[in-house]
Amino acid sequence: MKKVAFLLGLIFILYLESDENDIVITRTINSDDYSIDKESYCRSRAPSDSLIWSEEFNENSISKSTWNYAVSNGFKDRGQYIPGWGNGELQYYTRPSKKNKESNTSNNLFIEDGLLKIQPIKKNFRGFNFTSARIHTKSLKDFSYPSRITICFKLPYGGGFWPAFWLMPIEDILWPQGGEIDIMESRGRISNVVSSALHFGKKYNNKSALVGEVLIPRSVKFQEKFHSISLKWTKNQIEFYLDNEKDPYFKIDQFHPEFSNYAYPFNRKYYMILNVAVGGKYDDYWVDPKVFCNDNACSNKENPDNHRFLIDWIEYENL
User: Fold this and answer.
1) Which residues contact 237 (CB under 8 A, 6 or more apart)?
2) Which of 148, 223, 235 is nearest to 190 (CA)?
3) Could you give phi then psi for residue 263, rounded to 5 degrees?
4) Smallest Cα–Cα separation from 86: which of 273, 281, 278?
5) Could you tell me how far CA 181 lies from the centroid of its own chain?
């Protein structure tokens, strides 16, 4: 249901509510930067003296001191197994095999050409039709404010890809009481839209979500160029920025009306997650099996990287 729409310069802003009553804010950005054709529009790199941590993916291995693997098609919550990661997802997340133990990589997640590549594969595995990978920093590295977290990435194309970069609280706390910060999510069949989201509430059936979508020109599609999303995180306020834009496309603080119903939970420590899900409710369970790699080498595709989530770098800096 459309609530408000207005035009302001080059930015079009639309407020609406989704079928699940998520509050969605959509902005279209068509700045002069996108009139220049280049491979990467990512934010300029942070000064070295402001960096707390960065991940460059220049080695052929994944650091075991930073990243863990999530495995299977679901998780246990208070003793109950939740399949599909609670979203109806179709993939089984794999871990490195014994032959890849030293590099800590897998058929679904590896480093190549200075890029982390997460590759879902259409194959039968333990009763599931797709495999993929999900890594996280839980119990290894945590993140908090005041800070800026930036990811430089390129997205896979096709119905069913659900790549994401997000944060969850380090405490063992009932979701979504501790809050969830989705820095970047994408629907693979939509080429020029990504979103960020904040989830919070008391229980899974008593909650809210604030979502910020950003649209860019089709000439610089997310699947064809590298782009960055930055989370600017301060006490009681969160902002999201695209590439080198000076203004946030999504900004929320403790005074948003939704926080009169639920406590503002985002002043705490979180861990980081990178993954590609397959299907699920985010895109109404849409899946096109033909767009996925069929084997480890993605030999059924002329350009395998078009069907992978590519991450160039991640930065975590002081503000």
Assistant:
1) 251, 252, 253, 254
2) 223
3) -65, 145
4) 281
5) 9
Rounded CA-CA distance 97/110 in Å is 12
pLDDT at 7 over 60: no
Q: Which of 86-90, 96-100, 193-197, 230-234 has the lowest mean pLDDT?
A: 96-100
The phi, psi pair for 309, rounded to 5°, reads -85, 115
> What pLDDT sits at residue 77?
83
Tokens of residue 137, six digits: 């920093």
Query: Residue 196: beta bridge partners?
Result: 212
Q: What is the pLDDT of residue 20?
A: 65
Phi, psi of 38 (to 5 degrees): -150, 160
Q: What angle do CA 145, 146, 151 make, to 5 degrees?
A: 75
Distance CA 220, CA 201 (A): 36
**In the structure encoding, which two tokens stand for residue 40, read together?**
């990467």
Query: How many angstroms separate the CA atoms of 202 and 177, rounded?
Result: 5
Q: Give which of 194, 176, 173, 174 is closest to 185, Cα–Cα.
A: 194
Measured torsion, CA atoms of residues 224, 165, 212, 305, in degrees rounded to the nearest 10: 10
Distance spanning both ends of the chain, measured CA to CA = 37
Q: Are 70 and 134 in contact (CB under 8 A)?
A: yes
**pLDDT at position 311 over 70:** yes
Q: Is the peptide bond before 176 cis (omega within 30 degrees of 0)?
A: yes
Amino acid letter, 55: E
